[in-house]
């Protein structure tokens, strides 16, 4: 994405290269094709060079996954995908060494089986592990290949389970207790810092000017998305909705207490010391895996018509808790939804439209429960929900979320992550001011849609109770 700030202060994004991120299943697990991704990053930069005078480059990606480098800086194998099953049961094994309560007390991180801390424990006695001298999160790895500079950007570091949420520093307690060498983790950098400049070979390969800076952004995609939430007033909640739904609040300080732990809320870092107090909800992964399954079975898999069928389908016919662990790994999602329904005494949805309706209503219910809990735990009033990311294009999901939460939903921008990425770079160059100014820019320049709740609280409350949500 190329972001341009005009002299008049407008912000515009242009897509110059879009590529698939396809995981690859090897005999020893599910991996990312990170070399392919790097190749496409170079191709994207070459396209950018052709279409603009590039003053800075910034990289963000999904969280928790990492590459390991040996003593000479070589990548030790392809990074694992967080949906790989190698972390099954690992958290339980760690309980003796570092009880979950204590870990939460330091990191304030939602317990997810794939948090980096559990992935590292699963590395166990792998040959790579004994050779590993540096751990780089995915955006930091790409930054390293572009610049030769090693560092750990803080918003993404805060998703690892190795990061002290109050101190905003790597936690030596966690590292020492788990026997992870302190030196494995590079020094932190913060959004807006200069990460490095393009290596001469990269400049040559892409046609970008030598010495082009790579700026640390909020390199966790969700953190960048939250930067670009077009909120113009306090009292907002957000749902960053794509593969995952990340639903929560922006706070000035972490909420790390027993209630937050029991509700499995996370305290990830945002820009300028802010805290993203949120929960991961399984998100549109349920839908994309469903479509992928249907495609492989030769069934209709085009989203538009299926959403029309879902809109016309019977409300609340079947409901699932989207966070059921059975939905996490890749696989036949319609079959898993049917199994969930069988397990919970519901009739499984049969028509495709009914399956899609079940997924979207269930997600809306999870948005409702999560935002209510967030507001309660943080002692905040929520008056509006901003739904950003790819999911904001899904009108049915936006409407259902407004109905379920009983709050107005402002949908958009779709490319919140890219906007947040570019805005943090722009600020590093003095082109925009604080986060309020950034958000005002997004609100002024991006098409947003507003959905008012239709006031069916008792029906939604009953539906929520059916799946054990509030
Ligand atoms: C969203 C996301 C989310 C993480 C998950 C691994 O893309 O970064 O915030 O929890 O991927």
Secondary structure blueprint with pairings:
Layout: E1 2-5, E2 11-14, E3 24-26, E4 29-31, H1 34-51, E5 66-69, H2 90-94, H3 100-107, H4 116-123, H5 127-131, E6 134-137, H6 138-147, E7 152-153, H7 154-157, E8 163-164, E9 169-170, H8 172-178, E10 188-189, E11 194-197, H9 200-206, E12 213-215, H10 221-227, E13 236-241, E14 245-251, H11 258-262, E15 266-269, E16 275-281, H12 285-296, H13 303-312, H14 333-343, H15 352-378, E17 384-388, H16 395-405, E18 409-411, H17 416-428, H18 435-445, E19 449-451, H19 457-466
The chain binds 6-deoxy-beta-L-fructofuranose (LRH).
Q: Could you tell me the strand content as a percent range?
A: 15-25%
Characterize the quaternary organization of these chains: single chain
* Alpha carbon gap, first and last residue: 39 Å
Associated small molecules:
6-deoxy-beta-L-fructofuranose
Q: Count the beta strands.
A: 19
Pick out the low-confidence regions.
none
Query: What is the overall silhouette?
Result: globular
Determine the mean pLDDT.
Answer: 97
Separate helix tally: 19
Query: What structural category arises from helix and sheet content?
Result: alpha+beta
Strand neighbour order, sheet with most strands = 15-16-14-13-17-18-19
InterPro entries: ATPase_NBD, Carb_kinase_FGGY, FGGY_C, FGGY_Carb_Kinase, FGGY_N, Rhamnulokinase
Family: Belongs to the FGGY kinase family.
Protein name: Rhamnulokinase
Organism: Streptomyces montanisoli
Fold and architecture overview:
The chain is of the alpha+beta class. It has 19 helices and 19 strands. It has helices at residues 34-51, 90-94, 100-107, 116-123, 127-131, 138-147, 154-157, 172-178, 200-206, 221-227, 258-262, 285-296, 303-312, 333-343, 352-378, 395-405, 416-428, 435-445, 457-466; strands at 2-5, 11-14, 24-26, 29-31, 66-69, 134-137, 152-153, 163-164, 169-170, 188-189, 194-197, 213-215, 236-241, 245-251, 266-269, 275-281, 384-388, 409-411, 449-451. The strands form seven sheets. Strands 15-16-14-13-17-18-19 form a seven-stranded mixed sheet, sandwiched between helices. It has a two-stranded antiparallel sheet with strand order 1-2. The longest helix has 27 residues, at 352-378. The radius of gyration is 22 Å and the shape is globular. Pfam families: FGGY_C, FGGY_N. One of its GO terms (molecular function) is rhamnulokinase activity. This is Rhamnulokinase. Residues 50-227 form the Carbohydrate kinase FGGY N-terminal domain. Belongs to the FGGY kinase family.
